[in-house]
Structures are given as structure tokens and as C-alpha cells.
Amino acid sequence: MRALYIGRFQPYHLGHHAVIKQIASEVDEVIICIGSAQRSHELENPFTAGERYLMISKSLREDNVLNFYIVPILDVNRNAIWVSHVESLIPPVDVVYTNNPLIERLFKERSYKVHAPLLFNRKEYLGSEIRRRMLNKESWEVLVPKAVVEVIKEIKGLSRMEFLGRSDA
Ligand code: ATP
Ligand code: MG
Questions:
Q1: What separation in Å is there between the alpha carbon of 110 and the centre of ligand 1?
Q2: Which end of the chain is more exposed for a tag (fewer CB within 10 A), N or C?
Q3: Span from the CA of 135 to the centroid of ligand 1 (angstroms)
Q4: Where in the sequence is the domain holding 123, given as residue range(s)?
Q5: What is the pLDDT of residues 67-124, one digit of tens each?
């Protein structure tokens, strides 16, 4: 059985990580789609698809999760054809895991089985909260896997966030 999980992962955090590890333990293979792959260098979307790819793959490998396959997905800005667009880029899947109501709706209309995974500490394990803390130099490192801290350091992610914050002001 193959499962699909979709997110923007700006950045990949411990909430995503807990859910994907859980799914990976239940199915043969998890296909992880990186949504809005073309976006980067924006306050809401600071990291490139490649950087997000690195965050996800490094975090999972370090926890000995190996049955995953990552596919970046560009936006098409047409919800009616979005599922076909995703299908054209991924292996066939039996089930979709998402908490996003629009993604749930679009896949259900195409007769997919959709499950809503449990949310882990959603107050703090939340992309927007982590980006806010990065901008305000508050402690964000505790909300992401150790591998993500390393990737963000390697790509000088904090200095990018600081630049984006300044240029927006
Ligand atoms: P943002 O605040 O930027 O929207 P996010 O934390 O919601 O970030 P997404 O990449 O938008 O992250 O979410 C991808 C998927 O992960 C969604 O289905 C979302 O509901 C789920 N998710 C997000 N946070 C958690 C969490 N703490 N526990 C479990 N699932 C989560
Ligand atoms: Mg979200």
C-alpha cells in the first residue's frame, strides 16, 4: 500500500515528522509531495524546494525511516485540475493523508480515500509560528528535527529570514 502526504514544509517541523513516521510504519511507501515548490525567498515561503527536500530526507533517514519518496509539485493555480497535475508526477497511491480541507475535498471528488492524521502540539508545531520565532530570534530549534536545524544553518536560513523581514518592512 502506498500513501500520499502533502505539505509546503516551510519549514519541515516535528508535527510533520511525527505524522510521516506514523504513516511510514503503517504502509509500504509514503509519497511526500512538497507543495508550492516554485516558491522561495518570501516571508511565508522562505525555503526552496531543494532545501525543503533536504530537511525532510535528512530528518527521516536519521530516524531510520527509508520507505519514502519525495516529489516537488509546482502550483498550477487551478484547483479543478490540481489532482490530475499531482497524479501526473507521483506513483499511484491508495490513500491520501491530509488535514487541509481543500486538499481533502479535491481528492475525495476524485474518489480517493482520505484520512486526517492526528495533529501533534499544533499550537507550536506550526510553520507560521516557527517562521515568526525565526524572525524574532526566539527559540525555534526545539520545534523541528535536529537535521532541520543543521540544514537551516548550512543554507544560512536565518540570515535569509532576517533579510526578508527587513525588505518587507
Ligand atoms: P503553515 O503555518 O506555513 O501553513 P503548517 O504547519 O500548517 O505550516 P503545512 O506544510 O501547511 O504546515 O502542512 C502540511 C500538512 O501537515 C497539513 O496537512 C497540516 O495540517 C499538517 N500539519 C501541520 N502541523 C501539524 C502538526 N503539528 N501535527 C500534525 N500535522 C500537522
Ligand atoms: Mg498549513
A1: 23
A2: C
A3: 19
A4: 2-164
A5: 999 999 999 999 999 999 999 999 999 999 999 999 999 999 999 999 999 899 988 9
